[in-house]
Amino acid sequence: MPVNPYNKYIKQYQTSNITTATPEKLMILLFDGAIQFLQKAKVAIAEKDLKERSANIESARKILRELMRTIDLENGNDVSKRLFRLYNRMAMKLIKANVQRSAGLIDEVLEDFMNIRWGFQKAIEIQSGVTTVEEAMKEQSEKNDVPDNKGEDNAG
């Protein structure tokens, strides 16, 4: 397989992006990384690629462990403790997903990651004045109002 001649520059850009990122941006990058690893793990499950599945799930678990380490449980509030427990449940689901080769469990963790990422992104936007709490709450409400066809009676 030919080597991309731009790999060196891509790597430099990525390194620069990380080293110059704010702590808030680093959190978003961690969420994005975990989401990408879990999407790759789902593909690996479909392709029955044991090594790729395990490697990607383990990478997502490492990110979860790093996120857990950032929580100050001694000085934190109830939200901190709840977030820590959520991260822990997500990590346990990933262990189970790896053993059971379960794309469904990975989907559950993916949804959690995407929701938490959305919340962090909105908190950053509120803090920087890009949006307001009211606008974020309205967006969340609209997001939750989208019908998902679960439990609908399809009898016609």
Summarize the structure.
The protein has a domain at 22-130: Four Helix Bundle (Hemerythrin (Met), subunit A). It has six helices and no strands. It has helices at 7-19, 23-46, 50-69, 78-100, 103-128, 133-144.
Topology record:
Layout: H1 7-19, H2 23-46, H3 50-69, H4 78-100, H5 103-128, H6 133-144
Helix pairs in contact: 2-3, 2-5, 3-4, 4-5
Structure description:
It is built from 6 helices and no strands. With 156 residues, it is mainly alpha-helical. The longest helix is centred in the C-terminal third of the chain and has 26 residues, at 103-128. Mean pLDDT is 86; it is low at 150-156.
How many angstroms separate the termini? 54 Å
Largest sheet: none
Beta strand count:
0
Unreliable residue stretches? 150-156
Derived structural class: mainly alpha
Any idea what the CATH architecture of the domain at 22-130 is? Up-down Bundle
